[in-house]
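Sequence design from tokenized structure. All designs in this work follow the same two-part layout: the structure record, then the generated sequence. An example of the structure record is given first.
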């Protein structure tokens, strides 16, 4: 029988659930109620609009939930220094992280639809965190950007991801040509 890796602590689960809740609220507050013109405003060619950001957030939530639905068992001891890096850098927009092709927005949904998809995904994320809490450190996934990490670390990335884009939305809204 394979030895199990150390489980995450109750404090880690509480932290994860707090981040999931906080970033959901922050993201929805940032994009909710924008007009069609505001949602479509582009600061410069090639940069995402608020509508595209909202679509991307919903796509990432869905993609990472799919990834987390079938993690591989691992007896590998968790590398908690990765947790620290995620906590420190996940929301830092000074270091651009190109989105994988499959989560690049394509104008399939508007902001209200993206919010609804995100809310449903975030509810599933919270449910997954509760359901798999005792076992996340014993499971590994191949994250499309971070590589081979444990499921708890993938959940941290999922939890923080919207906050990174709240900063991007704030940048768009502060542009002098942003529709008022």
């Amino acid at each position: 029988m394979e030895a199990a890796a150390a489980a995450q602590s109750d404090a880690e689960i509480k932290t994860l659930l707090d981040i999931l809740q906080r970033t959901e609220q922050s993201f929805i507050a940032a994009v909710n109620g924008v007009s069609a013109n505001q949602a479509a405003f582009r600061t410069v060619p090639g940069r995402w609009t608020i509508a595209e950001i909202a679509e991307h957030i919903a796509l990432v939530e869905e993609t990472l939930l799919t990834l987390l639905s079938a993690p591989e068992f691992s007896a590998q001891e968790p590398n908690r220094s990765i947790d620290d890096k995620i906590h420190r850098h996940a929301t830092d927009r000074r270091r651009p992280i190109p989105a994988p092709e499959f989560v690049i927005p394509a104008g399939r949904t508007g902001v209200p639809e993206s919010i609804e998809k995100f809310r449903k995904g975030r509810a599933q994320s919270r449910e997954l965190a509760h359901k798999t809490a005792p076992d996340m450190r014993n499971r590994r996934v191949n994250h499309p950007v971070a590589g081979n990490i444990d499921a708890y670390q993938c959940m941290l990335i999922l939890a923080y991801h919207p906050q990174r884009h709240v900063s991007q939305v704030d940048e768009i809204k502060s542009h002098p040509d942003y529709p008022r």
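The domain at 10-173 is CATH 1.20.120.450 (Four Helix Bundle (Hemerythrin (Met), subunit A)). We note this feature because it recurs in several other targets discussed in the main text.
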